From TrEMBL, chain B:
Designated name of the protein: Carbon monoxide dehydrogenase
GO molecular function: iron ion binding; oxidoreductase activity
PANTHER family named in the record: ALDEHYDE OXIDASE 1-RELATED, XANTHINE DEHYDROGENASE
Domain Aldehyde oxidase/xanthine dehydrogenase a/b hammerhead: 29-144
Key word Oxidoreductase present: yes
Top-level lineage group: Bacteria
InterPro entries in UniProt: Ald_Oxase/Xan_DH_a/b (IPR000674), Ald_Oxase/Xan_DH_a/b_sf (IPR036856), Ald_Oxase/xanthine_DH-like (IPR016208), AldOxase/xan_DH_MoCoBD1 (IPR008274), AldOxase/xan_DH_MoCoBD2 (IPR046867), AldOxase/xan_DH_Mopterin-bd_sf (IPR037165)
Oxidoreductase among keywords: yes
TrEMBL record, chain C:
Protein's UniProt name: (2Fe-2S)-binding protein
Transmembrane recorded as keyword: no
Classification via SUPFAM superfamilies: 2Fe-2S ferredoxin-like (SSF54292), CO dehydrogenase ISP C-domain like (SSF47741)
PROSITE patterns documented for this protein: 2FE2S_FER_1, 2FE2S_FER_2
Top-level division of the source organism's lineage: Bacteria
InterPro entries linked to this entry: 2Fe-2S-bd, 2Fe-2S-bd_dom_sf, 2Fe-2S_ferredoxin-like_sf, 2Fe-2S_ferredoxin-type, 2Fe2S_fd_BS, Beta-grasp_dom_sf, Diverse_Oxidoreductases
MF-aspect GO terms: 2 iron, 2 sulfur cluster binding; metal ion binding; oxidoreductase activity
Domain 2Fe-2S ferredoxin-type positions: 16-92
Entry keyword Iron: yes
Keywords: 2Fe-2S, Iron, Iron-sulfur, Metal-binding, Oxidoreductase
Length: 305, 791, 174
């Protein structure tokens, strides 16, 4: 599925010259992370990593991007697999969207991702698209990048200078801009294990199944009884980046989910979100939809979602 | 009309029977042969550089750098192609006073919409051609773009065509008289202004063409994904000055058409020229984004309409103004004013009233052309009429069924002439209305709606009656000077093995033309359907005819096949009679056997007649010349059009907080006259309805203020997909036309005609408790929420 | 293994050889890195049953099975598929594994122009291999990325529904 970026650029670009065949590039299949990083370093800025390619291939076909070198990372074993590591689930960057639905560890320990997965594009896209690729692209309308925020996930990155981890809160910077530097690779995403005192909720409003949402939201909350001790709420399709709504979160912490609290959280969204104008969804409408969605999800959370 | 046409219990009786399409198995096995699949020896690929500007002067084109690109064979501009191709103009004589500028394959000095093809590159692959496009520089000087319809009409507006006085393409007026008086004396008047978004066909296979000019033979062969090969044979011949007999147009499988692929496109015309210039086959398949900016668009109407009623709810009069913008040219050869013309003529068609007035104004603007796409004009006419009827019902406190029952023309009142001049032979509104009421279980739906409303769930129920134009006579295009045939031809042969080959001018786009023609031939001759081979879509093989458009395949093509088959049967029985020493009238054919007409006793297989005629003519009486091939043409006579009718209903749910609409179920009762294959008719209805539902909720070509299409991709232009579409319940009423033996009328537009009107009425029904109304299509969440004042 | 060879960067236009198992047969194919799998299948291997409808993953006409999963062949470069097993509509037809689906589609006329049909069948086969008794909503959901302009979808859903029921009864054959 083409990225939102592609869609946005298309109106400007389409009339200039149409293309459906990529510009020529060279292809290198890396067997190890080091090989991949090395190839990128030597090719310079003109290289791109490709994993599932479900956003990158159309961007290349439409000539929105034209790297000289494509480095295929899908055969790097280190990037695969889902496993428990202490209090975290380590989800390999190459974990495909469909595996979010089929992998028992995800269903048990990262149920928010399991719940979000069916909303990611369409089945055939999910068969090939990868979690790491989605987070790296950081499409503000995508489900998974936003969910890493709600989950307080950490992004594990391989760079020529070594490995590092970065909090999802610090990862998303601006439209398609992340803390990932050129030549760096996401190797895994670490998600805190879902606990017995936690609840989650996810939903999105879209005109058609699989479309980019008009607005979408996921949340994880920790309860003592019916009192919320902690909550992280993340929206997508509301701005230039996936967006945590800290004002709304603050209104909820320490309280139970009564209608007044929910209304207060909805009210706080105005300060949390600054939706962009688009030709079909005016900012005020998007804010309205975000409020409706938040209200519904908090309602579900209150019912023990 | 004769009884045997519907007696399904006799052998070889296929008319009225749901038989699967013989040619569908190939498609299921991935063995379709679409033009986009075609590869010819030495074939080259074309790609086009397109204008980024909605309106600009072409100052200079520099393609110097392309010379260095290996694999590029030709770069051609408008001037290059204008040397070999004569221009065309999209006007017809019967639209008095209409204007349109001449068109060339590629523009000579000015671009008039964003996305217009400007320079062609022919190369050894599409990828190389695209590489070359990146190296071409076109220097443009911006001209003021005419985008918005209101500014286009203002005095002193920028002009799409600098040589003309204004941006008007065409104006028309209908007035049956005394409209003002009727409104002055009306007890009730309802009035609304409606907007209908631009949308487009989005066939899954884009436009595809392979032009193959052989200079040694002076012969042009064009493999063309189109509905109308004969029309294109004529056009390529005349515009490239090649004798008609040396132009062959072949249409094989086609991945959807819906009217979109029967217009002349600049790229297609250019590809023919490129092949002539190179003397090699040249292929062009529009990519999806090119399709969005170069396929014809449709609709884009703004209609202000009012309806006068008496105190009891009887419709007295209608007064309509239709304003539509059609792009920079009128499309060739069918024009871009037909939709507007049909809008103002179809409004009010189901109803009994006398006083009607309508004006139509057709405006040029700097966008891609609009023209005929499935159900031309019908959805607009239907939505305007049916919404006004619902508004009147609400005003008078009448139920939507009741006001329609009160006002439709009675089934026993035909023939009738509408206030707009259409002549209706026989329609069945009352029967359809009654059937729909039962089928929907209307009282239960209403009770359920009331119950759910109390719980904050807002369902809507909508119905819409419609009239559809089918089986067009020359009154449609021929009278305007278009070389578009309204007749069809068939060549029918009994083969040496006793099978039948039918070469017929109607074409197949998946609706089942070949299936129903084989049903008719098998039925009328008395042989098994699998022994009939139908051949379509090759101007060198099949006789000249109208082919497929405006719902004419079954009604006109079917009658052609029927009459041709009867002629072949006469010839077969003549030979049989000679062999059997009988009178032809004493014989018949059943299941491939000549039988005794009275006793049905088999006498002789027709295969034996074929064997004798082809191989042992010496055994026939002297002077006998067996005519086992017949050709037959049929042109519709009698009524200028065979009108059909029906009614649709839908149930949906509006989420009043999000503006999202869920379609729950759709219903249709349809009368297309004689039903040849009920399954195929139902599938025409389903597919048509879903196209109408797409228009109702999703589809719209949206433009920026500078005339750029902003949602020209399949990720951004929302087509109806499986999850959002409802199941559809179908019933039929059959009122055959008496103008033909077969009695069939068309059914291709019926679904699309009323589906969006139904949804419009249902959404307004759901929103009624809030005092909110919607008058614009597509009905987006933004429009719903705006109407509900939610933001 | 040093891996990356810098000279590769100057050879963007050079074709490379990919090895695939297509419809059960080993094939080698010379492709440019920029050739998508759908172009490779259609142009190089002449398997034209796989269609290109949008070339951006939004229509489902180009679905094929790669290593047993339905994938858009327009969203994969052929070089990425090197070493993979690919099954197209032609192979699925010849092996008979979708014969029941094809028969049911035919019987119910769940196709008109046929351009979406191979993608629909590939997707239907994938669905039924994962879910034995999908309900209508699940079938519609599975088809959510497959565009059909002709049918209105209902008979496609009906056909898949009927085959699902027949297969789970142990029938299955066409």
């Amino acid at each position: 599925m083409v990225t939102n970026l592609a869609s946005r650029l298309m109106s400007r670009w389409i009339s200039e010259e149409t293309a459906v065949k990529a510009r020529a590039f060279s292809y290198f299949r890396a067997a190890t992370i080091d090989q991949a990083l090395d190839a990128h370093a030597r090719a310079g800025d003109d290289a791109r990593f490709i994993a599932g390619g479900q956003s990158l291939v159309p961007a290349l076909s439409l000539r929105l991007q034209a790297p000289r070198l494509l480095i295929d990372i899908t055969h790097i074993d280190e990037l695969r697999g889902v496993r428990r590591e202490g209090s975290h689930l380590r989800i390999g960057a190459l974990t495909r969207h469909c595996e979010m639905l089929s992998e028992p560890l995800i269903a048990e320990f990262a149920p928010l991702l399991h719940a979000a997965a069916p909303f990611v594009a369409h089945p055939a896209i999910r068969n090939r698209g990868t979690f790491g690729g989605s987070v790296a692209l950081a499409d503000p309308a995508s489900e998974f990048p936003a969910m890493t925020l709600a989950l307080d996930a950490e992004i594990e990155i391989a760079a020529p200078s070594g490995r590092r981890r970065i909090k999802a809160d610090d990862f998303f910077i601006d439209l398609f801009e992340t803390a990932l530097q050129p030549g760096e690779l996401i190797t895994a995403i670490h998600v805190p294990l879902f606990k017995a005192d936690q609840r989650f909720a996810f939903d999105e409003l879209a005109r058609r199944r699989g479309d980019y949402a008009l607005v979408g939201c996921g949340m994880v909350a920790t309860f003592t009884g019916e009192r919320i001790d902690d909550i992280r709420i993340s929206f997508f399709s509301v701005g230039n980046t996936p967006t945590r709504v800290k004002g709304a979160e603050a209104t909820l912490i320490g309280s139970s989910l009564d209608p007044e609290r929910i209304a207060a959280a909805q009210g706080a969204l105005e300060g949390d979100l600054a939706p962009l104008d688009s030709d079909e969804v005016p900012p005020a409408m998007r804010l309205h939809l975000a409020r409706v969605l938040l209200g519904r999800l908090l309602g579900r959370l209150g019912e023990g979602a | 009309m004769s009884a045997p046409l519907t007696s399904l219990d006799r052998p070889n009786s296929y008319i009225g029977r749901s038989v699967p399409r013989p040619n569908a198995k190939r498609l299921l096995a991935g063995r379709g042969r679409y033009v986009s699949d075609l590869k010819l020896p030495r074939m080259l690929y074309a790609a086009f550089l397109r204008s980024p500007h909605a309106h600009a002067k072409i100052v200079a084109i520099n393609s110097e750098r392309v010379r260095a690109v290996e694999g590029v064979h030709l770069v051609a501009t408008g001037a290059d192609l204008a040397k070999i191709c004569t221009p065309w103009t999209g006007t017809l004589d019967h639209f008095k006073g209409m204007t349109s500028a001449p068109q060339w394959p590629l523009p000579l000095d000015r671009v008039v919409w964003a996305g217009q093809a400007v320079v062609a590159v022919v190369a050894e692959s599409r990828a190389i051609a695209e590489d070359a496009l990146e190296l071409i520089e076109v220097d443009y000087a911006d001209l003021p773009a005419v985008v918005d319809i209101d500014s286009a009409r203002q005095a002193g507006a920028a002009l799409v065509n600098p040589d003309s006085a204004n941006n008007t393409c065409f104006r028309s007026q209908l007035d049956s008289g005394a409209v003002d008086e009727a409104f002055a004396h009306a007890a009730h008047v309802v009035e609304e202004e409606f907007c209908f978004g631009r949308h487009t066909a989005v066939t899954l296979e884009p436009r595809a063409i392979v032009a193959d000019y052989d200079p040694s033979a002076g012969m042009l062969t064009v493999h063309h994904g189109t509905q109308t090969p004969y029309q294109f044979q004529d056009l390529y011949s005349r515009h490239y000055n090649i004798p008609e007999a040396r132009v062959r147009v072949i249409t094989t499988d086609i991945g959807g058409s819906f009217g979109m692929k029967l217009h002349v496109y600049h790229e297609d015309m250019a590809v023919v020229g490129l092949s002539i210039l190179l003397g090699r086959p040249v292929k062009y398949v529009a990519d999806r984004m090119e399709s969005f900016v170069s396929d014809i668009h449709a609709r884009d109407h703004r209609v202000r309409a009012r309806m006068a009623l008496d105190a009891k709810g009887g419709i007295l009069a209608m007064d309509v103004e239709d304003l539509t913008a059609i792009g920079a040219f009128s499309t060739y050869p069918r024009t871009s004013v037909v939709e507007g013309n049909q809008v103002i003529r179809l409004i009010g068609a189901p109803y009994r009233f006398k006083n009607y007035r309508a004006t139509l104004e057709v405006i040029f603007q700097n966008k891609v052309q609009t023209s005929q796409y499935r159900a031309v004009g019908h959805p607009i006419a239907c939505a305007v009429t049916e919404r006004l009827v619902d508004m009147a019902a609400a005003k008078l406190g009448l139920d939507p069924f009741a006001i329609r029952a009160q006002n439709v023309i009675a089934d026993d009142a035909y023939p009738q002439t509408s206030p707009t001049g259409y002549r209706f032979e026989a329609l069945s509104h009352q029967a359809c209305l009654k059937r729909l009421h039962e089928m929907m279980d209307y009282p239960t739906l209403r009770a359920e709606q009331a119950d759910l409303r109390k719980r904050g769930i807002h369902r809507g129920i909508g119905i819409a009656t419609f009239v559809e134009i089918t089986n067009p006579s020359p009154a449609f295009y021929g009278v305007g000077g278009a070389r578009i045939s309204s007749q069809d031809g068939a060549i029918l042969s009994l083969t040496p093995s006793g099978e039948v080959r039918c070469m017929i001018s109607v074409t197949e786009q998946g609706q089942g033309t070949e299936a129903i023609i084989s049903q008719i031939v098998a039925d009328q001759l008395g042989i098994a359907q699998e022994h009939v081979k139908v051949v379509t879509g090759d101007t060198e093989v099949t006789p000249h005819g109208g082919a497929t458009w405006a719902c004419r395949g079954a009604g006109i093509g079917g009658e052609t096949a029927l009459q041709a088959t009867r002629a072949l049967k006469r010839n077969i029985l003549e030979i049989a009679a000679l062999i059997l020493q009988e009178q032809p009238a004493a014989l018949d054919i059943v299941d491939g056997e000549v039988v005794d007409a009275a006793t049905r006793k088999p006498r002789l297989p027709i295969a034996e007649i074929a064997r004798i005629a082809y191989f042992r003519s010496d055994t026939l009486p002297p002077g006998t010349q067996a005519q086992l091939t017949v050709s037959h043409h049929f042109a519709p006579q009698g009524y200028p059009f065979a009108f059909t009718n029906g009614i649709q209903g839908c149930a949906l749910e509006v989420d009043v907080e999000t503006g999202l609409i869920k379609l729950l179920k759709h219903f249709i009762v349809e009368d297309c006259g004689r039903v040849i294959n009920p399954m195929l008719v139902d599938e025409q209805l389903r597919g048509g309805i879903v196209q109408g539902l797409g228009a109702a909720l999703f589809e719209e070509c949206r433009y920026s203020e500078t005339g750029q299409l902003v949602n020209g991709s399949l990720a951004d232009y929302l087509v109806p997909m499986s999850v959002e579409m409802p199941d559809i319940v179908i019933a039929h009423v059959e009122t055959p036309t008496a103008d033909t033996v077969l009695g069939a009328k068309g059914v291709g537009e019926a679904g699309t005609a009323a589906a969006s009107a139904c949804v419009l009425n249902a959404v307004n029904d759901a929103l009624a408790p809030f005092g909110a109304t919607i008058n614009s299509i597509p009905i987006t969440p933004a429009k719903v929420l705006k109407a509900l004042k939610r933001f | 293994m040093s891996g990356f060879d810098q000279t590769l960067l100057d050879e963007a236009d050079e074709t490379v050889r990919v090895r695939l198992i297509v419809n059960g047969r080993k094939v080698t194919c010379e492709v440019a890195p920029r050739d998508t799998l759908v172009d490779c299948l259609r142009d190089k291997l002449e398997l034209t049953g796989t269609h290109a409808g949008c070339e951006m993953g939004a229509c489902g006409a180009c679905l094929v099975q790669i290593d047993g999963r339905a994938v858009h062949s327009c969203l994969v470069f052929a070089v990425q598929a090197d070493g993979a097993t690919i099954d197209t509509i032609e192979g699925l037809s010849e092996s008979g594994v979708i014969a029941d689906l094809q028969a049911e589609f035919h019987r119910r006329n769940a196709l008109q122009c046929g351009f979406c049909t191979p993608g629909m069948l590939v997707n239907a086969q994938e669905l039924l291999s994962r879910v034995t008794q999908p309900n209508r909503e699940e079938i519609r959901d599975a088809l959510s990325g497959n565009y059909c302009r002709c049918t209105g979808y209902e008979t496609i859903v009906d056909a898949i529904d009927a085959v699902a029921k027949a297969r789970s009864k142990g029938g299955g054959a066409a």
